[in-house]
Amino acid sequence: MLGKLFKKKGSNEIELFAPVDGEIVPLEEVPDPVFSEQMMGDGIAIKPSNGKVVSPVDGDIVQVFPTKHAVGVKAGNGAEILIHIGLETVALDGEGFTVRVKEGDKVKKGDPLVDIDLAVVSEKASSTVTPMLITNMNDIETLDKQDVKQVRASEDVVITIK
């Protein structure tokens, strides 16, 4: 309790960078209610322009889905970030995805997480739109989304959280 009173102001604020190059899609416009209605958390979505997914923040890999379509990263301030590559991609059972990390790995912003074969995913999934969500919103004070349209992976800040 006293730790909260004497914590340095701003010490738990972090910036999340784009995990892929592409065009921002407002979460409420993602054609899947799990994401558009924020059932798993708040965040953004990006329509990727290439197949490189990188870490949006320094942190620890806490989950790599067996189907290779999603990765969970825990940031230093405790924020739990889910990067879900495409929509209806669990059905691909890993086809079109090459995972570059494993659970327990420490990553830095910009480290490769997953390579996507966009041709395969575009053909076999309903969409390549890639949501990035904060899944533990109850632990987050504020979430500020940047007003940007086009982003470059690990170069453009898309969300600031505290």
From TrEMBL:
Q: Where is the PTS EIIA type-1 domain?
A: 32-136
- What PROSITE patterns does this protein map onto? PTS_EIIA_TYPE_1 (PS51093), PTS_EIIA_TYPE_1_HIS (PS00371)
Localization annotation: Cytoplasm
Q: What is this protein called?
A: Glucose-specific phosphotransferase enzyme IIA component
Q: Major place of localization?
A: cytoplasm
**Which GO MF terms are attached to this record?**
kinase activity
According to its UniProt entry, the protein's GO biological process terms are: phosphoenolpyruvate-dependent sugar phosphotransferase system
**Any one cellular component term from GO for this entry?**
cytoplasm
Domain of life the protein comes from: Bacteria
Source organism phylogeny? Bacteria, Bacillati, Bacillota, Bacilli, Bacillales
Q: Which UniProt keywords apply?
A: Kinase, Phosphotransferase system, Sugar transport, Transferase, Transport
